[in-house]
Amino acid sequence: MPENPVACPDCDLLQHIPLLPPQGKALCCRCGRVLATNKPGANERTLALAIGAAIVFIIANAFPLMGLSAAGREVDTTIIGGAWVMWQEGQQMTAALVALCAVVAPAAYIGIIIVVLFAVRVYHPAPVWVGGLLKWAELAQEWAMAEVMMLGILVALVKIADLATVVIGVGIFATGALIALITAVAINFTPEEIWAQVQWSSGRTPVFVNTATQTVHQGQGAEK
Amino acid sequence: MSAREPKAMSSGLALCRYCELLSKFTSTHKASYCPRCGNELAFRRHEAIQRTWALIIAAAICYIPANLLPVMTSITVVGAHADTIIGGVILLYQTGSWHLALIVLIASVMIPMAKLFALAYLLITVQNRSTKSNRERVRLYRLVEFIGRWSMLDVFVIAFVVALVQLKPLMAAQPRYGILFFAAVVILTIFAAQSFDPRLIWDSDNKMEKLNE
Fold first, then answer.
1. SS3 B2
2. Do A221 and B41 touch (CB under 8 A)?
3. Which residues, 6+ apart, have CB-to-CB distance to B29 below 8 Å?
4. What is the pLDDT of residue B60?
5. What CATH architecture does domain B47-205 belong to?
6. How far is A21 from chain B (nearest CA, A)?
7. Does residue B2 carry a pLDDT above 60?
8. Four-residue CA torsion sign, B38, B39, B44, B47
């Protein structure tokens, strides 16, 4: 067995990660899952993208997505408005789900990533709570569905285009930019690099890891 | 096969589900915790097979009212009209945008169904200890995980149609209970995909090792 093995999360095969060239990635030799990547400067790039995403997120939520006008009357909606009307119409659970996937989870994802990336810049090693936030980031990412929402908005537009005049708002363009930025954040963010700098909950200070390789600390399972 | 492809579990190493730290994990009676993030260690996700079955059965049950009950009522001066998921697809097709109708049909009807069948297939092959086409099965699993979120499409469509079509008394749209069941199908299938453990696919190649609890 090679030194410092890693286990593939999808097939449990133990293997050794070789030194990776910049932009290189290591795939599991049995099932093909990406096991490690080497993205020089990923943290700085991700932080910049995440701050951009936060600004665009505020714009996307503050301005109307689109409006509908007929017979001299006009209604418009923001992102949260989609959930709010549904809540008022008696579908509270579905409304909560829409609010979660459209607003809460994307906001949490962007916010957590900004905090985590600032924390690893300031603290060496990063405090234990950074690890806690990383778990939340993963959860938030799963439920952040800005891209699905965007397609939903487009389908909704086509459905109502025949009924009345549709007015496109600023929010819809900001949402488009938000999708691009969130995707870029997700591509550049490397949680394993952050984890390697986090203070262990068992009290051990992590050995600073050369970011060019994903070195795995082989710790003894602590018993509580 | 297994001798040349060492498994973490056979070497007494467990991968933390959250921080992906590989730790020595010996005790199966006492709970062991990841030294880095403090989460409970396990060789495999707890009761993956039972949980995934339970969730896909629940999703399959919700799939029936999700498709039979109306998801939205449109009220115009002419009268009220209730639409099911399929009804919405047909309406979209008739109003001329067949490509959008196809996208909604795939996202709302075919993806949830395909997810249920794919997960059931993975569970059955794991339970039959199949060793065939492991790589393809793990790819299928990744596809199920990746594609699941797109089923939320119709929930968003209904939400934004309802939010906009509020020109009473001229026209109005109201969400109906079908959308709740539909949302339940989406959530349950996402949870089902998360509770399955793809490593079980590769566990069949040697004698069943002592699984974690």
1. coil
2. yes
3. none
4. 95
5. Up-down Bundle (1.20)
6. 22
7. no
8. positive
